[in-house]
What does this fold into?
Amino acid sequence: MHNRKHQISNPVEPSSPATPATRPDPEVVPTAKRRTFSNAEKLRILAAADACQARAHCATFFTWYNRQHRHSGIGMTTPESVHTGRAAEIRKLRQATLESAYKRTPGRFKHRVPRQAKLPTAAWINPPATEKKAV
It folds into this structure.
């Protein structure tokens, strides 16, 4: 073609960079020529890596969110404890602890026994048309 150094020699891929990222092809012997990737291939590789990272993050996050994080909308219990039916037992133990603390130091609680907020009968993000959102 031309002797110009910076001109792209492949007219089919005019948007490819002058020095594409390279990596050794594992199927070829180590002394072989390095394989170059097109921009589209690079994007597919990055997207696959990002998807794997996103899946790993979501697995960790949702485990924490459902099993450890206490939600104010469901009485400071975890979604897992509500779903498995353990929320009522947890609330009884908490109330016993609050009453015990009140007996030891009533001035700390403005001289009235502390009570937990009531649990909602239902918790919705988008309630069905036949249900009303619980208060």
In short: Strands lie at 22-23, 35-36.
